[in-house]
Backbone:
């Protein structure tokens, strides 16, 4: 997984029907040599703009959604506690 | 997923029969540290040259095509709204 | 797999229920051209901060947990012996 | 997928039996920020040295071979038409 | 796949039981823009330190081991012939 900061919500009116109702957000990897890399992630745990989150990628993202047919490759799996300074 | 801009259609007369009828396009990742990375993506939602799109990669691309036997690893899942400025 | 050093534990109170009880740690890849890249990994073999470990990524991480439904994409599979100097 | 140019055939007398009879070639990604990255790809559509090809990676490569047990992670899926200038 | 040179054996006394008896080696990608990137790979075809090998990654590595439950993401699939100069 990677640590990323949620930057904004992203809107796509024309999209796969399988994405209907899914919240998609722009995330930016923070820390380490991939710092600044941007991803689009889906969120089902209520994370918001500005939150530092843990993002899982690849086929694991579909496990987070509990639906192997949704075409996403990145999902928020946790919101990092504010007291967690090293992240 | 990543944000990319569709640059052109790509033509391959000799190809896997499983790709027959699939539209393949050159996309360029925009924003973040992977800015400028090129991908070939397939599109089944009617995106066109110049559109900013959301691209899913890996096994998720086959979920977009709803056919697990097609040998693609990247697919357009949504067209980003023009009003979406931060993308 | 990659060689990484475990830097710290990471805490996320709000997270997927499937991650409950799993230890998540910040790891930093050491050596080679990816030196300094950060990952979040899960550990089920009792590794600790400061340990140099072998991390497997992608769908293989779920094999380490023996549960294909957990949404993780990186896991510690071994702790490198201290006598192993080239790692 | 990525655009790559086929540079040479690669020979490995000692190899997995599952690779017997498969043509393996050195390919170099062309264009974009990954320009110059080298991959070993398998080819089953008759591509040759110098051809510009579309390469699929990951589990999709096994779909190209129509055999999920072959341990390859990259395969040529199409030969780009010479008239295709932007590729 | 990628071309890599085997640099050393790596030892991990504490590890997943599923890795017992598997030879793990440090490999370094050679050639192209990923030159110098380090991987830990498993080898079941008798490759040795100094050999130039073809490494498959991701779920394909488990096909090399013929066991989908082993948590590895990279495996040697062939030893490149010494006469193969362009590799």
Residues:
């Amino acid at each position: 997984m990677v640590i990323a900061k949620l930057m904004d919500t992203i809107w796509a009116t024309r999209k796969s029907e399988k994405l209907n109702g899914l919240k998609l957000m722009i995330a930016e990897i923070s820390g380490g040599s991939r710092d600044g890399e941007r991803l689009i992630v889906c969120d089902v745990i209520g994370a918001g703009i500005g939150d530092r989150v843990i993002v899982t990628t690849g086929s694991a993202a579909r496990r987070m959604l509990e639906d192997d047919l949704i075409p996403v490759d990145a999902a928020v799996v946790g919101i990092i506690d504010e007291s967690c300074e090293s992240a």
The CA atoms of residues 3 and 87 of chain B lie 7 Å apart. The longest helix of chain B spans residues 60-65. The beta strands of chain B are 2-9, 14-15, 23-29, 38-43, 52-57, 74-79. The mean pLDDT of chain B is 96.
